[in-house]
Design a protein that fits this description.
There is one protein chain. With 227 residues, this protein is an alpha+beta fold. The chain folds into 2 domains: 15-88, Orthogonal Bundle (Helix Hairpins), CATH 1.10.287; 95-226, Cupredoxins -  blue copper proteins (Immunoglobulin-like, Sandwich). It is 34% helix and 27% strand. It has 4 helices and 10 strands; from the N terminus they run H-H-H-E-E-E-E-E-E-E-E-E-E-H. The protein has a 5-stranded mixed beta sheet with strand order 3-2-1-5-8, with no helix packed on it. The protein has a 5-stranded mixed beta sheet with strand order 4-10-9-6-7. Helix 1 (15-46) runs antiparallel to helix 3 (59-88). The protein is elongated, with a radius of gyration of 24 Å. 19% of the residues are buried.
Length: 227
Amino acid sequence: MSFWGQLNLMDPGSPVQGEMLLFHDHAMVLLIGIFTFVGFLGVKLSFNKFTSRNILEAQQLETIWTIVPALTLIWLALPSLRLLYLLDEQSSSGIILKSTAHQWYWSYEIPMSESVSFDSYMIPESDLNPGDYRLLEVDNRATLPYQMETMVITTSADVLHSFALPSMGLKMDAVPGRLNTMSMFVEKPGVYYGQCSEICGANHSFMPIVVEAISLFDFIKYLETAE
C-alpha cells in the first residue's frame, strides 16, 4: 500500500463500518470549514482588520454567530444519532460467535447442533510464514460465513479485555461475569484482523483477533470437519 493510501482509515468490511467512514468524512468537512474560517479571522485580526465599530458592536452579527453554531451542531448530531442507532441494533438470527478473553489468548465457541470451540494463540515471530503479519497471526482463526448476520458475544475469564475488529466497526469490552453483544455483518470474503484494545497485563500486545470470512457452503464443511 502506498504512503497516501495509509493515511486513510481501513477499508470497511461491514455496512456499519462503511457508515462510520461516511460520518468521519462528514465531520471532517465540518471541521475543515471551521478551521479555515477561524484561521481566516485570526489572520485578519492580526493585521488590525475587522476592528471597526460596525463589527465590534453589531447585534446582527452576534445573532448570526449564535445561530450558525447551533445549526452546525444539529448538522453533526443527526447522522451521529443515526449511527448510534445502527450500532445498537441487535439481530437474533444468523450465526453466534462467543469469544472469551484470557491472559493472553482468546477462546471461541460457535454453538450449533454440535458446538465448535477452540483456543486462539498468537503465532510467535519465529514461526511466521513469508507474507504473514507480525503480532497479528494466530494458530486458529475464527471462521464465519459472509453475507450472514453474526452475533458476537464476548466475556472474560480473568481481567478486563476488549474485543476490537476495526474493519467490522466492532469494539466492545470483555468483562468478567458479564456478556456483551454486538451484531456483525461481513460483506465479502477475506481475513480481518483486530487486537485486544484494553491494557490487560504484561502480554496485552500479544492478543490478536483474526476472523476469516468464507462462503456458507465452505462454512458448513468447516463445521463438519471441526466437529
